[in-house]
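Hi support team,

I submitted a single chain yesterday and got back a structure, but I'm not sure I'm reading the token output correctly. Could someone confirm the output below corresponds to the sequence I sent? I've pasted both exactly as they appear in my results page.

Thanks,
R.
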Amino acid sequence: MLENRPLCVCEITDILKLAPSTVSKHLSLLRDVNFILDEKEGKWVNYYLNKSYNEEYVQKLLPLVSQWLPDDETIKFDREKVKTVDRKNICST
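Hi R., thanks for writing in. Yes, this is the structure output for that exact sequence:
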């Protein structure tokens, strides 16, 4: 999903239908290993893929993930959902 655009926790939660605590924990783990980065924007924290490739394993894994999953039905569905999810409609203040 983060290949499409940066997303906040509430958007990811809405797409995956998981608890915010679960999504936050997984994002934290991915951020801790520099696979993703985050940036504060007003009341939201946007998560996005680390495409700077400063970490060798990120440089090698990120392209592979794109190659491994393009035809997976769940991935296709999630990519489409990213196009319509709107944090202003789903995130509580």
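A quick pointer for reading it: The beta strands are 36-41, 44-49. Let us know if anything else looks off.

Best,
Support desk
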